[in-house]
Specification:
4-stranded parallel beta sheet, Urease, subunit C, domain 1, 19 strands, 8-stranded mixed beta sheet, about 425 residues, binds zinc ion, alpha/beta, 12 helices, TIM Barrel
Amino acid sequence: MHFFSKSIASILLVLLGFFSVKSDEILLKPSYVLDVVTGETLSGIKILVDGGKIKAIGENISHDASVKTIDLTGLTLMPGLIDAHSHVLLHPYNEVSWTDQVLRESWAERTLRAGNHLRATLEAGFTSLRDLGSEGAGYMDVGIRDALNKGVIQGPRLIVAGRAIVSTGSYGPKGFDLSHHINLGAEPVDGADLVRVVRDQIGKGADIIKVYADYRWGPNGEAKPTFTLDELKTIVRIANDSGRPAVAHAASDEAMRRAILAGVQSIEHGDGGSIETFKLMAEKGVIFCPTVAAGDAISRYRGWDGSKENEPARIAAKRISMQRAIEVGVEICNGSDVGVFTHGDNVRELELLNAYGLSNLETIKAATLTAAKLMNIDKLGQLEHDYLADIIAVDGNPLDDLSVLRRVKFVMKDGKVFKKP
Ligand SMILES: [Zn+2]
């Protein structure tokens, strides 16, 4: 009997050993951990990752003796960065104009390019993207998202808007003889048909509904509202019924006001917002994605040297809208409109948010806590127990110097290591 129980004990030990060897746990040992909630930089903290999640974080955490350990001495761990406004199916307009991308590039080419874009983005430490429209490439974004989730390609976690919604007559490409059928950059629909189209986009795999609440179709090419308030309310209602948010492109004050009243989750661009509209936005808890980097890039493509003296009107308007949003306490998120400029250079938006008035910590919060809200995924954007293990390490403290975000040395997404020092 004694011998028998001893054997059982040893078999159990062997089994335990077997299971511990099989453990997928990873222990990260950095010099510092940045708490993006409190803004504290802590030392002596370790993070244990298992099954795609943070299993434990702290000074003394229990783990298996054989756990795989990654030594990140000298580096600071922080949550993976999030860009809440991307277009993975576009590439910089100084390479190929938007119109030519929409009309001349095959969906195959655009999808293959997107694969490259996603790899570069993850490499740069951006572990999540909210992709706001395929810009004429149908539902390729849905397919890309699904391929990513199956591990066919590597890239940030992705939520997608599919084709996006525009009013009849407003969106491009434009300027062609009317006898041609032109592939539009989004799906035109109005009035009662909105119910069917929102449901159709949901059925085809959209995670969010993106609506263009205005577009540059005024008599002089200025941004003017596209949808009525009632139409916007319909879009939001149908999207929300399905558990999805609607988000609005809006540059003019009136379109912003309508979209806010209709109940969108975020306003994209917001260049012409009045102080009253930003106040309404703060009241309703609507998040602002100023997309500073897009306007900056386009202005430079058109010859702007970046100097304050030669600042184009759109840049001046962006500065004013940012100041207003900050003044009345609108929550600002990091959303760059990358695609207009180079994928993987997403950190440009953080640098500009910083230059336009957010502190280093506020900028980092915009790209983690706030952007995570717009991903509509629970437990994302913080280094906390049970949160998704999207973790990066940078060489230095971003609270002192944001440029360290350009030196991302380690990238983990979903508990899987993508880049190591
Ligand atoms: Zn965009």
